[in-house]
């Protein structure tokens, strides 16, 4: 979970989020090198007592500051393209979950099972003891870990966004359109998210909660539903 002192990404709970964090660290390292180099050159120029009044052009310098940024962009672009293709890759999903955004709650349908659908509302602070304020819900999404999950997202009114930061998932919920994405949870736990598209007065009061459990417990949950 995010905390006030956390200035970085949340800990990854999926292979996709791990790749996003790797790309972030890779790009940040390159940006820090650029910042240090430019700062050093500016300081050297500011405190330089020698001025060449007859310098009109410097082809070598212009060649260097054209080639260096080009190589820098290549080192950033290739990992970025790889990550974009990983985001689009869709393996055969074990389960398909449909999420419908409303003002201001989410409803879910398990397309592979009959009669499993429910609404998910944020819990009030006095409804449950020791719950996470403004993050917990009355009906959590129950999904099995170590399996490919497909999520279909749409909206019944305005644009919403279904987001779980620790899984690296963020999908817009547009009225009259189905968006899809797949994710893979590699450990059990409870993962929190929120609507990430300003959708009205109660935009911040429609959280998302996924409970990742083992396949055996998931089958028991399906049978009891």
UniProtKB/TrEMBL annotation:
The lineage of its organism: Eukaryota, Metazoa, Ecdysozoa, Arthropoda, Hexapoda. It is a multi-pass membrane protein. The keyword Calcium does not apply. NCBIfam families: CoxB (TIGR02866). Residues 92-224 form the Cytochrome oxidase subunit II copper A binding domain. Keywords: Copper, Electron transport, Magnesium, Membrane, Metal-binding, Mitochondrion, Mitochondrion inner membrane, Respiratory chain, Translocase, Transmembrane, Transmembrane helix, Transport. Binds a copper A center. This is Cytochrome c oxidase subunit 2. The keyword Transferase does not apply. Its cofactor is Cu cation.
